[in-house]
Amino acid sequence: MKTVYTCFCTEVIHEGHLNILREAKQYGKVIVGALSDKALIRCSRFPAIPQEERLRLYRSLDGVDSVVIQDDIRYDDVLSLIRPDYVIHGDNWQTGPEAEIRARLLRSLEALGGQLIEVPYTRNERVSRADRQLREKLAMPEFRRRRLRQLLTLCPVVKAIEAHSGLTGLIAEKTVIAQDGRLDQFDAMWVSSLCDSTAKGKPDIELVDLSSRLRTIDDIMEVTTKPIILDGDTGGLAEHFMYNVRTLERMGVSAVIIEDKTGLKKNSLFGTEAAQTQDSIEGFCAKISAGKRACLTDDFMIIARIESLILEQGMDDALARARAYVQAGADGIMIHSRKKDPGEVLAFCDRFRQTDPDTPIVAVPTSYHAVTEEELAAHGVNIVIYANQLTRSAFPAMQRTAEDILRFHRAKEVDERLLPIREIITLIDEL
Ligand code: SPV
Ligand code: MG
């Protein structure tokens, strides 16, 4: 009897999947591959139910003979294990990033003497509604909030990109690339104080108040599902921070990062060029503990950001603070640096990891941008934040367009580098 293989990455079975199974059955014994959580988060939507439950769900379906785990979006390993006569898939992957996975599968199948069967993708109102409901579920506060902690167990390194509006949120949510036969995307969003302030034409000095920051977060939450890490500046007064933690946690924010500065905060990338005061260890520990006391769930993370390297207070000070902040209840440590060379950040991570193998470390490689995620992860970094690159790419593009329209007294010269009208009017999904 021939074998037919199909890979599922869904947790809601709709008529499209049943159609695939019905077709598959005509060719022989049906093996369903359940894409593992680890593989799923790179290429599709985040799993709202655990891998084990998805396996049980697939096993219960009519026409399924067996279920295996597919641990990589690339079919190479699973195909050499199963050696199916056929692989069956919807025809919706012939274009877009998934086309690369399809092309790689075709090469593997050819080598094994197998064949790809494609069935027309089922598009109708019921299928779209099932899709939409799943997306809505992931946007719910309890699902979104715990997703960062889940990602920390699933990814070698969690990648966050800055978002400061619905539109930049959509870029963080939807940007997917295909590379080496795999898909990749960002895991989380960073609501940067620098970019949120800059978008409002204001300096990054805690002038944009929390109500305004919450409005930005809400705009982002309206159109995304990925977890949010808020740049909480200094966190303000400990007594206020407690209330703000409650608000953020209730909204579904996953983490707030507060920095150990006090008084008028300026952006860290000024370093010692701007007068800035670091908080005492005791003062900042008290703020962290107050925040932790206010938390109602284990999901929400308070991450302590150490400014010792920025303020040239030395490595020993940074390490002493890191240990004290963890003792005070911090769920993670962010170490910041404005050097071009990642050396001091990597040295901090190595020394911190000698005594603390578990507490998540966050790095923001803005100045030391040549370092790769892999190198950072090898030194124990768990979250990498691309803190301002979207804002910094948009600003010069807009400025150049404005200058050229002034220069040419018309818009023809700029038009070819702009998003086509057809695309801008269809950029936002309709309900
Ligand atoms: C931000 O993005 O606002 C940050 C990171 O706090 S940095 O600008 O590097 O200080
Ligand atoms: Mg900031």
Question: Would you write up a description of this structure?
Answer:
46% of the residues lie in helices and 17% in strands. It is α/β, with parallel strands linked by helices and 431 residues long. The strands form four sheets. Strands 6-9-10-11-14-15-16-17 form an eight-stranded parallel β-barrel, surrounded by nine helices. Helix 11 (238-251) runs parallel beside helix 12 (281-294) and helix 13 packs across helix 14 (343-355). The longest helix has 20 residues, at 389-408. It is globular, with a radius of gyration of 24 Å. Magnesium ion (MG) binds next to helix 9.
- In total, the number of strands is 17
Secondary-structure-derived class: alpha/beta
- What shape does the CA trace take? globular
Give me the side-by-side strand order of the main sheet: 6-9-10-11-14-15-16-17
Distinct small-molecule ligands in the complex: sulfopyruvate, magnesium ion
Gap between N and C termini, in Å?
45 Å
Query: How many separate helices?
Result: 18
Mean pLDDT: 96
Beta fraction: 15-25%
What is the makeup of the main sheet? 8 strands, parallel, barrel
Specify the helix fraction band.
Answer: 40-55%
- The low-confidence parts are none
